[in-house]
Amino acid sequence: MQNKPKQLLVSAIKNGTVIDHVQAGTATKLLHVLNLGSHKKIVTLGLNLPSKNMVLKDLIKIEDKELSKDEANRIAIFSPQASINIISNYEVVKKFDVILPETVQSLIVCPNPKCITNNENMESDFKVQHVNKQIKLQCKYCEKIFLQTDINDYRA
Amino acid sequence: MTVNLVGRDIISIPELSREEILAVLKNARSLKKEPQPKLLENHVMGSCFFEPSTRTRLSFETAMQRLGGRVVGFADPSVTSTKKGETLYDSIRIIGQYVDAIVMRHPLEGSARRASEATDKPILNGGDGANQHPTQTLLDLFTINECQKKLDGLDIALVGDLKYGRTTHSLAQALTHFGARLHFVAPQSLQMPEYICDELKAKKIKFSLHEKIEDVVNKVDILYMTRIQGERFADQIEYQKIKHVFVLTAKMLEKARPNLKVLHPLPRVGEITTDVDTTKYAYYFEQAENGLYVRQALLAMVLGKLK
Question: If you count DSSP H runs as helices and E runs as strands, how many of each does chain B have, helices first?
């Protein structure tokens, strides 16, 4: 047999979005946050892929969906270094980084069981701060401050 | 800078500026000196206590009545629609249509903020779970200013359960406006949380951590005592070992600064022995009385009758 040609670890998509440089271990969270479970087209997922800058990274390819900047920024609290590539006819036509939003509404479930947001039918609201390479999230209601890693539950 | 609290919600201490705090204290001082029994005539305060309270509820209700206003409300949520499953949002939205201001206490954290979204009427937070109790902090500041004749640059020790005590968190945050030197006295497992310490560092407030009252008692102007609750300890043997360490007795005050005053948000359960009550240092009963004037000042300010 001939030498194998250079091969992509995750197959290419024709049209859609590639979320690259996702912090290893967070891609499954992003599927939930972006509600990709109900996306009726192909979604491919690469976990723990080798990366020059990150050692290991995750990657998500979404067929036939162009991620908006707002959607992209919702994933910034999990993976602030993620980059978004919009693909058209196998070519990258747009590329942008995610931007950490100042606030995040209705996404995070407050880890404090005594917080009013966990006891009334209402949206959560968190203030986002990036301090010393850590993402800190302060609940607008109970005012408690959490690290991104303290958050266990999300509403898609 | 002019201060205007008309229509404002009083929910959380970090939202109040130094100028706003000083304006509240100034009005409280003048109301203590000169009562104004007609200031809030024709105004109605809703007193919504979803959780039991004696001091906070009675002092708010008395404050309103001593300014000529009237009070409606409840001290027990089991008599309200909450029992039928009504949301806090709906309850407050409706009560807001009846009254001019709402004072509330609720066991859930963030409930006062949620309530403020349901009505345009000012919400005064009388305690939301373990989160905030801003009127307690304002009466503490009023009392410190009253007994020390100043607020800036004081040596202040906070003693007891500093990890879970909302009173000491809010007081430490408020004191960042006044350049206090803080001394935190607590068992290691109940020391001041990191996020408060980070906030103090960012604002260049000096503080130190201690494990015994004796280490600080002769170096401070204010000794702010709080209760350590046995149920905070997983290990009851540990609690039995340390609980006597955080009791203040008259003997311990022998070499205190002459201007030292001992404060306590009350109720006390043995952490200040009764022989302290008759020393010149005890000031906790005066502190409790001051709650009345501070709450009068806040009600008059949010209802636009005092600047």
Answer: 9, 9
**Residue whose C-alpha is closest to residue B4's, from B307, B296, B262:** B307
- The residue of chain A nearest to residue B129, with distances taken between CA atoms, is A114
Contacts of A139 in chain B (CB under 8 A): 110
CA distance to partner chain A, nearest, from residue B54 (Å): 22
**Architecture of the domain made up of A16-97:** 2-Layer Sandwich (3.30)
Region B88-101: mean pLDDT is: 97
Contact assignment for B110 to A120 by CB distance below 8 Å: no
How many C-beta neighbours within 10 Å does residue B252 have?
Answer: 17
- Mean pLDDT over each residue of chain B, to the nearest integer: 94
- Residue A3 pLDDT class (50, 70, 90 cuts): low
- Determine the residue of chain B that is closest to A136 in CA distance: B195
B84 in catalytic set: yes
Q: What is the pLDDT of residue B78?
A: 79
Rounded CA-CA distance B176/B108 in Å is: 27
Which pairing describes strands B222-225 and B261-263: parallel, antiparallel, or unpaired? parallel
**Residue B207 one-letter amino acid:** F
Spell out the domains of chain B, with CATH numbers in brackets.
Answer: 13-132+291-302 (3.40.50.1370), 135-288 (3.40.50.1370)
Report, as an integer, the average pLDDT of B74-81: 80
Model pLDDT, residue A5 = 58
Q: B227 an active-site residue?
A: no
Enter the tokens of residue B120. 């345009």
What's the one-letter identity of residue B59? S
pLDDT of residue A7: 62
User: In this model, does residue B139 exceed pLDDT 70?
Assistant: yes
Which tokens sit at B103?
A: 């004072």
- Which tokens belong to B264? 């306590």
Topology at the third CATH level for domain A103-150 = SH3 type barrels. (2.30.30)
Of A17-21, A85-89, B81-85, give the lowest mean pLDDT range: B81-85
Higher pLDDT, B76 or B127: B127
Chain B contact for A147, CB < 8 A?
no
The rounded distance, in Å, linking the Cα atoms of B3 and A27 is 49
Decide if A102 contacts A131 (C-beta within 8 A): no
Q: Which residues pair with A94 in a beta bridge?
A: A86
- Output A148 or B154, whichever has higher pLDDT: B154
Please name the helix (run of DSSP H) or strand (run of DSSP E) that holds residue B207, with its range, or none. strand B207-210
Q: What is the pLDDT of residue B172?
A: 96
Segments making up each domain of chain A, as ranges: 16-97, 103-150
Q: Is B18 a catalytic residue?
A: no
Whole-angstrom distance between the N-terminal and C-terminal Cα of chain B?
A: 12
Query: Is the preceding peptide bond at B267 cis, omega within 30 degrees of 0?
Result: yes
The pLDDT of residue A145 is above 70: yes
